[in-house]
Amino acid sequence: MKQLFGRDLRPGDVLLRMATEFSQNLKGDNIPGKVLETALHKVIGLGQRVAGQPNAFLAHAAIALDTQFVIEARQAGVTANHLAMTNRGCGYYVYRCTNAALARGAATCAKMFFDIAQTGGNMNYAKIGAVKSLFGPGGNAKSAAEMETLLDALLKGRNHNFFCSQFVVYVYQLAAYQSGLAAKTLFNISDAKVSPSVLASMLQGNPHFQEAGYMMPDER
Predict the structure, then answer these.
(1) Crossing angle of the two packed helices 164-178 and 144-155, in degrees rounded to 10
(2) Is the pTM higher than 0.85?
(3) pLDDT tens column, 26-37
């Protein structure tokens, strides 16, 4: 894989965060910083392993807004964070949508939800939802009517919580819908059932995405 830096990112890139020990193994020696793993992400990683999900070392997901910022659902809610500052210690796998217009649409949707959250919209972190995503069937992608209803509620500032990978999948499904595509053509699964591990597996086998490379902690 190719090592990427901030300048290599494109709007809509999906960033999957690596665990500390995996980042060290990838580089082959000790890294100068530490991946910023919260207790919650460690629990998610453990839950993914217990559930037998592959790629369990990936416990968080985000969407690139541009070459500097990612938008992500964290414990503080839907936030925008600087890769070279707040998220400098994070290592990522990066996947890129092969449809550049759709990728830009996803970045725009993610920014819209960030703006809503900043102006009083209630989009907190869905801790229970993150745990539930580790178990049970995958469910179905939202219909056009369901996506329209949820979008309308979010635009009106109504409460809807997201966990990280759910946010990424919902944003891309919404961008697909707004581009005239059925949400299931991109991810044929309920957004509430996509853990970071499952998202990684879906991206690896998805014709709409390709592996762009990886980013090392503290190397931006």
Answers:
(1) 110
(2) yes
(3) 554 443 334 444
